[in-house]
C-alpha cells in the first residue's frame, strides 16, 4: 500500500499552526438533500485545515444528548479568512440529530475540528474507485474533488436500501468518469449491493486503489472483495465516538500489525484505515449492527450517533 498512497501531513497549515480548533460557528445554511440533511457552518480556519476523510465533533443541546456528535466533512469552501465554510451531512436517528435538524441560518453551534486522519492520496497516477454506502458517499464526494485536482481518474459506486437513501447521485456522476448505483429494492441502478458490481467496475477502469466509506458491514465486505481482487483499499470506518479526541477509548478498532492485533482509536488513529489490516471478524457486534445486513445496505452510511 505504501507504494500506492501517501499519507502526508494531516493537520499542518502554513501560517496557522496545527491541530483541531474549537469554535462557535454560525449556521450559514440548512437544506434537505434527498433523504438527508445538510448544515453549512461559517468556519474559516477549520475550512483551511480540513482534508477529505476528516470529521468535526458537534455539540448538541438536546436534553437526552450529552456527547458531541461526529460527522464527516462533506465539503469546504476556502475563499479567504472570512468566507470559509464547512458542510456536514446527517440523518435524523436520535435526539442529537433531531436537534441539529432544527438549526437554521444564524443559529450558532459549537464545533471541534477538523479531527482524525484524512484519506491518503495516491503517490502514483492510478485509477481510483470510490465506494459509498448511504450518506457515507458524502466524504467521498469531497475526496473526488481532491483526486480530480491531481488529474486522477475517479469512478464511483454508491449503494443503499432504496433510491432515496442514495446520496447525491447527480454530484457523483458529475465528479466521476463513471458512476454505478445499487439498491436493495432495485429502485435505482442494479438490484443488489455494491460488492455485486465492484469486480466489473474494477476490471473496466483498471482500478489501482479503492476508497470506501459507509456502514461497517459494507466496509468489511468491500475490504474482503478488494483483497480477493488484489487492489489496495482505504476505508473510513463508522465507529461510535464519545470524545472524538482519543481520550476515552470508546471507538477502538481491532487492527492487524506484524506483532499481532492491536486496538486503535478510530477518532485519532483513523477514521481512515487500510481495509486489509482491519480485523473485521473481531469488530464489535454493536458496530456491525449499524448496517441493515452483512453486505452494505446501511441505514446511515456515516458516523453512528452514540446513545444519550
What does this structure look like?
The structure is a single chain. With 308 residues, the chain is α/β, with parallel strands linked by helices. Helices cover 20% and strands 32% of the residues. It has seven helices and 17 strands. It has a seven-stranded mixed beta sheet, sandwiched between helices. Helix 5 packs parallel to helix 6. The protein is globular and about 50 Å long. The C terminus is likely disordered.
- Note the total helix count: 7
The total beta strand count reads 17
- Estimate the mean pLDDT confidence: 85
- N- and C-termini, Cα separation: 38 Å
Rg over C-alpha atoms, rounded to the nearest angstrom = 18 Å
Main sheet: strands, sense, barrel: 7 strands, mixed
- Oligomeric status: single chain
Q: Label the overall shape.
A: globular
Strand content range? 25-35%
Low-confidence stretches: 7-16, 285-308
Order of helices and strands: EEEHEEEHEEEHEHEEHEHEEEEH
Structural class: alpha/beta
Bin the helical content: 10-25%
Biggest sheet: strands side by side, in what order? Answer: 12-11-10-9-13-14-17
List its traits.
globular; 20% helix; single chain; six-stranded antiparallel β-barrel; alpha/beta; 308 residues; seven-stranded mixed beta sheet
Summarize this structure briefly:
With 308 residues, the chain is an alpha/beta fold.
SSE topology:
Layout: E1 5-6, E2 21-33, E3 36-42, H1 44-49, E4 55-58, E5 69-77, E6 85-90, H2 95-100, E7 108-115, E8 121-122, E9 127-133, H3 137-149, E10 154-160, H4 169-175, E11 178-183, E12 190-191, H5 194-205, E13 207-213, H6 216-228, E14 233-236, E15 252-257, E16 260-265, E17 272-274, H7 285-288
Parallel strand pairs: 9-10, 9-13, 10-11, 11-12, 13-14
Antiparallel strand pairs: 1-8, 2-3, 2-7, 3-6, 4-5, 4-7, 5-6, 14-17, 15-16
Amino acid at each position: 500500500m505504501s507504494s500506492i498512497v501517501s499519507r502526508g501531513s494531516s493537520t499542518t497549515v502554513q501560517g496557522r499552526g496545527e491541530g483541531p480548533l474549537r469554535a462557535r460557528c454560525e449556521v450559514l445554511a440548512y437544506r434537505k438533500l434527498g433523504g438527508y440533511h445538510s448544515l453549512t457552518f461559517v468556519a474559516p480556519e477549520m475550512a483551511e485545515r480540513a482534508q477529505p476523510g476528516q470529521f468535526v465533533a458537534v455539540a448538541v443541546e438536546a436534553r437526552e444528548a450529552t456527547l458531541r456528535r461526529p460527522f464527516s466533512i462533506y465539503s469546504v469552501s476556502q475563499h479567504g479568512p472570512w468566507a470559509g465554510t464547512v458542510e456536514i451531512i446527517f440523518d435524523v436517528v436520535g435526539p442529537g440529530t433531531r436537534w441539529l435538524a432544527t438549526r437554521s441560518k444564524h443559529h450558532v453551534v459549537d464545533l471541534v475540528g477538523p479531527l482524525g486522519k484524512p484519506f491518503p492520496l495516491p503517490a502514483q497516477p492510478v485509477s481510483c474507485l470510490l465506494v459509498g454506502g448511504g450518506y457515507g458517499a458524502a466524504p467521498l464526494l469531497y475526496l473526488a474533488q481532491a483526486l480530480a485536482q491531481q488529474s486522477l481518474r475517479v469512478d464511483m459506486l454508491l449503494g443503499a436500501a432504496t433510491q432515496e437513501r442514495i446520496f447525491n447521485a447527480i454530484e457523483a456522476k458529475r465528479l466521476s468518469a463513471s458512476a454505478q448505483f445499487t439498491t436493495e429494492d432495485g429502485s435505482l441502478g442494479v438490484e443488489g449491493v455494491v460488492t455485486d458490481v465492484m469486480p466489473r467496475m474494477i476490471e473496466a477502469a483498471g482500478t489501482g486503489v479503492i476508497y470506501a466509506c459507509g456502514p461497517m458491514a459494507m466496509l468489511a465486505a468491500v475490504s474482503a472483495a478488494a483483497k480477493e481482487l488484489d487492489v489496495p483499499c482505504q476505508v473510513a470506518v463508522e465507529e461510535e465516538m464519545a470524545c472524538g479526541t482519543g481520550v476515552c477509548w470508546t471507538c477502538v478498532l481491532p487492527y492487524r500489525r506484524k506483532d499481532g492485533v492491536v486496538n486503535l482509536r478510530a477518532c485519532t488513529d483513523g477514521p481512515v484505515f487500510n481495509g486489509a489490516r482491519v480485523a473485521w471478524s473481531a469488530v464489535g457486534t454493536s458496530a456491525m449492527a449499524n448496517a441493515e445486513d452483512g453486505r452494505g445496505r446501511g441505514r446511515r452510511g456515516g458516523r453512528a450517533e452514540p446513545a444519550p
